[in-house]
Structure formats: structure tokens, C-alpha cells
Write a structure and sequence with these properties.
about 475 residues; alpha/beta; Rossmann fold; L-fucose Isomerase, Chain A, domain 3; 2 domains; six-stranded parallel sheet; six-stranded antiparallel barrel; 14 helices; 20 strands; about 35% helix; about 25% strand
């Protein structure tokens, strides 16, 4: 997993058991479906739920807190649950009770998951009526804007866990603070005034949709700070030691001038100081292929890679089209993410490349890496990370308009050596790859080791975006 100092805020889950107690009446229907019929049934079910949730907590690889289960038999009781305000997610065990209870829980504006039993314990009433009575309200259309069939789980706690993982990612993406060196943007730049205005609106879209908290360090200030670092013998000496230690690691080969690596560690240290100053977990660099090079005497590629390996989120090009997707995938996967330029998909594959790839792509182990120049400038220090052959990856393609994202699973065919950005892979696309040809949006993509497609889709829809999985 990533550095624990940079994991997100814990996801707080409040379990609620809804139930009803029935009294026998002669010659009439006096009880509803379900195996929870008495007070002793309720007590036994609460013990069962508590044990199951304790086990779930041990399986979650992201920070969660599970509050005590509370039984509720009426709508009015919902508003008297003392610890429910602190919860992010209400996990509803819908054993029985009326529609009013579910509506009251939904009104609290928390994320709602509904757990139903079929064979994992006593049969639940809402297994019969959740669709017609609640989700569709006796119509043929879904009428609940905040609770959909995607939020209903039957028996399987693995299905609960991946949804919680998605909601953890969503919680921590919302309101993320990110520092931009230079101006926030939305790739690429343009001399056309109308296009320039549209591009400048993209960071606003990221703020609007994801509540991203953008803090800007203008280049004049950054230049002044960097000059102080470069002229400070203590910083330079430390950078030399850090560069020596880095280059002495196994599976790393230097193929550029060592002075670029030393300068990269100076920039890396300054980036970390800026992150600490703003109490931020993410950073991005505008105009990193032009403006920063003469200021830093190296490129931003290696410093950003180093920060990603430490558990921060570090992106080049200040592209707020793709940055929200990078933050979301980072928190859902628990791994560094690879911002990349895609090529034209063909024959079921696509090439992904950039010069800022993390080395610790699985969150734990360093991949074999050459330290080379940044390709377009043939200058500075950039990692050429040799990603694992046959490794399954998740890829997200976000759109310019913050309306619709595309995603697919793929597997790495091989790390390549084309005359393009230094970290590069050919990727086999799982699914109907031709849908990408007409469906591609935006420009930059984001990728991570592992299969997180369902979590991303679930979180993206919760955020109000359309989602297409290839």
C-alpha cells in the first residue's frame, strides 16, 4: 500500500437494521415475509451483523470505521440515532419495516447501501419488495435519485467491500487540495481567445464537480524559492546524497548526466516544502516542458515520479481535465497512478506514454527503471519505467466537459522503446476496442495497476457523470 501518511480520511459506516414485530391475528394475514419476526430474532440478527462487519473490517485495505449497529422499527427512530451524523455511509440491513424508514434514512443525505439476505441468514422482507415498492414506487421507472439498483447487495460482503472502496475514493477526491506551480489549466494552450477562455474554464469545472481546492504558486515566487534552494549549500549537499542513494538502488540505471538527477532532488525537496506549506496531498506543474526547465536546470519528471512513489499525487501539465480522475483512481486503488498520452487504438491495443511514471506502480515494489532525459527536450532526468508484462491495468479517459468518462481494463503487452515519452507500454484492450475510436474524450488518460473498473464507474455515477465501460 501507499505511504500511510498520505492515505485519505477514513470512511465511516453506520449499520442500521430495519425490522417490524408482528402479532398473530386470527383468520387474516398478520405478518409480512421474512425471518425476523420477534425481539429475540432482532437480537440474534444484530449479533450476526456485528460479527460479519468485524470480519469485513479486517478485509478492507483502506481506512474505515464501522459504528455499532442500531435497530430501527419506525420512521421517527431514524432521527434519534445519536452517531448517525458522523457517518459517510448508512449500511441498511433491510429485514423489514415500512417504506417510511428507508425514505427517512435517504433524507439524511448520506450514501445509502441496502443489504438483503437470501441465504446468508434469515430471509429479509425487502428482498421481495425493494424494486417495486421502494426503487420504483409502484411505477415502471426508477424514482429514487440517490439510491439505485447499484446500491443493493444480496448476501455477498465482497459486493459491499468494493462499493465501500469506491465511496472511500469518492469521499477523498471531493475537496482534495492541490498546489499548482504556475496557472491551473486544461490541456492544451491556445492562441485563439475563445478557445483560451474555454480552456481556462476547465479548472472551474473541476472545482464545481469535485470541489477541488486549487492553490497556486506563481512562477516568479517558485523561481525565487528555487534560487534560494540552489544557492543553499545544505540543500545541494543533501540533494547529492539523496541522488547517490537513489541511483544505488537495485534495478536502476543512469543514462543521463548525474547533475540533472541532483537538481531533480533539489526540486523534489522544494515541492515537498510547498506541499507542507499548503498542507496539500497533491501537486501539479504548468508548462513543465518549457517554463520550469530554465528555472530548475532540470525537468520536473523525476521529482514528480518520486512524490508519486511516496504516496502523494503529483501530475505534470496542470491538466484539470484528467487530474480529478487521477485523484479518484489513486484513492480507490491505493496505488500511484500513471498520467499518460494515449496513441490511436488499433488492432485491439493502444500505446500509453509519458515521462513522469511512478516506479512503485503496485504501491510496494520498485520497477526496473532507466533514468534518461525528457524526450522532447532531450534534457534533464526522467524515469523510463519498465512496467510488468501481462500486468492488468485500469485506464480512464475523462472528457473536457466534465460530463462523461470512459474506462477500460487492459493488460500490458510490453514496455517499449519508441521515440516518444520515456515510460511507455503497449496495452491490450479488454472489450470492444473499436468503441474507443468514436468514444474517446479529452486528451490525457490515467492508468493504475489492477482492476478497479467497477469501483470507478460506481463512484463516477455517484458524482453525477455519465460512465461508459469499454
Amino acid at each position: 500500500m501507499i505511504n500511510k501518511d498520505h492515505t485519505g480520511k477514513k470512511l465511516v459506516i453506520k449499520p442500521i437494521l430495519t425490522y417490524a414485530i408482528y402479532e398473530r391475528k386470527e383468520a387474516t394475514s398478520w405478518r409480512a415475509w421474512g425471518g425476523i419476526q420477534t425481539k429475540s430474532d432482532v437480537a440474534e440478527e444484530m449479533q450476526r451483523i456485528s460479527a460479519e462487519l468485524e470480519n469485513l473490517g479486517t478485509k478492507a485495505e483502506f481506512p474505515i470505521e464501522i459504528l455499532a449497529v442500531t435497530p430501527i422499527a419506525s420512521e421517527s427512530e431514524v432521527f434519534n440515532v445519536k452517531d448517525i451524523d458522523s457517518a459517510d455511509v448508512i449500511l441498511i440491513y433491510a429485514a423489514g419495516g415500512g417504506t417510511g424508514i428507508l425514505l427517512a434514512l435517504q433524507s439524511l443525505k448520506k450514501q445509502n447501501l441496502i443489504f438483503l439476505r437470501h441465504k446468508s441468514g434469515p430471509f429479509y422482507l425487502w428482498n421481495e419488495i425493494i424494486q417495486a415498492r421502494f426503487l420504483r414506487n409502484y411505477t415502471d421507472e426508477f424514482v429514487r435519485s440517490k439510491v439505485t439498483p447499484d446500491d443493493v447487495i444480496v448476501d455477498d460482503y465482497n459486493e459491499v467491500l468494493w462499493r465501500l472502496r469506491a465511496l472511500y475514493g469518492l469521499k477523498n477526491t471531493m475537496g482534495t487540495r492541490i498546489v499548482t506551480i504556475g496557472e491551473p489549466s486544461g490541456w492544451p494552450g491556445s492562441s485563439d481567445p475563445a478557445e483560451f477562455d474555454r480552456i481556462k474554464s476547465i479548472p472551474y469545472l473541476a472545482k464545481q464537480r469535485w470541489n477541488i481546492d486549487i492553490k497556486t504558486v506563481p512562477y516568479p515566487r517558485f523561481s525565487e524559492l528555487l534560487k534560494r534552494f540552489v544557492e543553499d549549500e545544505t540543500h545541494l549537499n543533501q540533494a547529492e546524497r539523496d541522488a547517490e542513494r537513489y541511483l544505488s538502488q537495485p534495478n536502476i540505471t543512469l543514462r543521463t548526466d548525474k547533475r540533472f538527477v541532483i537538481r531533480a532532488f533539489v526540486v523534489y525537496k522544494l515541492f515537498k516544502n510547498i506541499l507542507d506549506e499548503y498542507q496539500a496531498s497533491a501537486i501539479t506543474v504548468d508548462q513543465c516542458m518549457s517554463t520550469i526547465i530554465p528555472i530548475a536546470g532540470t525537468t520536473a519528471c523525476l521529482p514528480l515520479s518520486l512524490l508519486n512513489d511516496e504516496g502523494y499525487m503529483a501530475f505534470c501539465e496542470s491538466d484539470f481535465v484528467v487530474i480529478p480522475a487521477g485523484i479518484l483512481l489513486h484513492y480507490i486503488s491505493g496505488k500511484p497512478v500513471f498520467l499518460n498520452d494515449p496513441t490511436y487504438p488499433h488492432d485491439g491495443m493502444v500505446t500509453l506514454a509519458h515521462c513522469t511514471a511512478p516506479r512503485k506502480m503496485d504501491g510496494q515494489n520498485y520497477e526496473k527503471t532507466d533514468i534518461v532525459t525528457h524526450f522532447e527536450s532531450d534534457y534533464g532526468a526522467a524515469p523510463s519505467v519498465k512496467m510488468r508484462k501481462n500486468q492488468e491495468i485500469t485506464v480512464i479517459d475523462p472528457d473536457f466537459e466534465e460530463k462523461r468518462w470512459i474506462g477500460f481494463k487492459g493488460s500490458i503487452i510490453e514496455s517499449t522503446s519508441y521515440p516518444i515519452c520515456r515510460s511507455q507500454v503497449d496495452v491490450a484492450i479488454e472489450g470492444n476496442w473499436k468503441n474507443l475510436l468514436s468514444g474517446m474524450r479529452g486528451f490525457h488518460w490515467i492508468a493504475a495497476y489492477g482492476d478497479y473498473l467497477r469501483e470507478i464507474g460506481y463512484a463516477v455515477r455517484k458524482a453525477g457523470l455519465e460512465w461508459d465501460a469499454i
